[in-house]
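Section 3.1: Structural characterization of target chains.
Under the original work plan, the team committed to producing a structural model for every single-chain target entering the pipeline before any wet-lab resources were allocated. The record below documents one such target. The sequence was received from the expression subgroup and is listed exactly as submitted; it comprises 80 residues.
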Amino acid sequence: MSKPHEIEISLKYLVSIEGDENASEQDLAFRLGYDEAEIPVSDDVLVRLRDELSTVLPGHLRLDRVGGELSLNGARVKSF
């Protein structure tokens, strides 16, 4: 059996403040990382992403999600 390959997808979002509200980095980090067991992305989104990748790969390959990382301003909030 050959060594498995690893595909990495990285997404970045620019968070802008609308109106007079305040959003500190500390508050954002708390909201994103309040529960170590949860990520703020639904399983449906991850399944759809896997399905999209699978359509361009040969049929005899299987994609198994190994994990990911959620960061804020370059600092890791949590791994999943």
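The helical segments are 25-33, 43-56.
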